[in-house]
Design goal:
Number of helices: 6
Helix content: 40-55%
Radius of gyration: 17 Å
Strand content: 15-25%
CATH topology: Rossmann fold
Number of strands: 5
Distance between the termini: 67 Å
Structural class: alpha/beta
CATH class: Alpha Beta
Length: 176
């Protein structure tokens, strides 16, 4: 009997990509044959970076992974229902990271809704590693916007991009 490829989708806005995101990506890619990181359009969140920039940022971060236990990782943008995206990718599961009890409440509701949409796609939860439990993109952006040091929450490359973006935003505001 042929082994079925284990495919999972890890969705998010990744605005910006944090060490917490990368922890879930690395760990998820160890248990899956193929992990598709789905970068959501999600304009309602008012992203700091464009969709193309966020896709590029995630791809750059993944390129730096040096772990022979990690399976294939792909990065794709999507602007549809998560379940439709997962079906298009032939995924058997959707991977979600959990940081705190407050995440669980939201994720529990989403898992129930998604199970109604397609009960054949499982939702897999990975607890954030202890060192990443408190990291949230929203907080990283807030710290950077106020001139704080974000280097312990994101990679150096992402920190540079975030700080450059806020520097540009500050310059634009000063010119108005």
């Amino acid at each position: 009997m042929a082994k079925t490829e284990r495919v999972g989708v890890y969705p998010g806005t990744f605005d910006p990509t944090t060490n917490g995101h990368m922890d879930v990506i690395r760990r998820g890619a160890r248990v899956l044959d193929r992990l598709v990181v789905g970068v959501a359009v999600n304009a309602g969140k008012g992203p700091l970076f464009s969709l193309d920039e966020r896709v590029e940022m995630v791809r750059d971060e993944i390129a730096a992974i040096d772990d022979p236990r990690v399976g294939v990782i792909e990065v794709k943008p999507f602007n549809s229902l998560l379940m439709h995206f997962a079906e298009e990718e032939n995924a058997q599961c959707i991977l979600r990271g959990l940081r705190a009890v407050s995440d669980f409440d939201y994720e529990f509701q989403m898992a129930g809704m998604n199970a109604r949409l397609n009960p054949d796609i499982e939702i897999l939860f990975l607890m954030a590693s202890e060192s990443n439990q408190f990291i949230a993109s929203r907080l990283v952006k807030e710290i950077a916007a106020l001139g704080g040091d974000i280097s312990s929450f994101v990679s150096g490359a992402v920190a540079d991009r975030v700080n450059e973006r806020y520097g540009r935003l500050d310059q634009l505001a000063a010119n108005e």
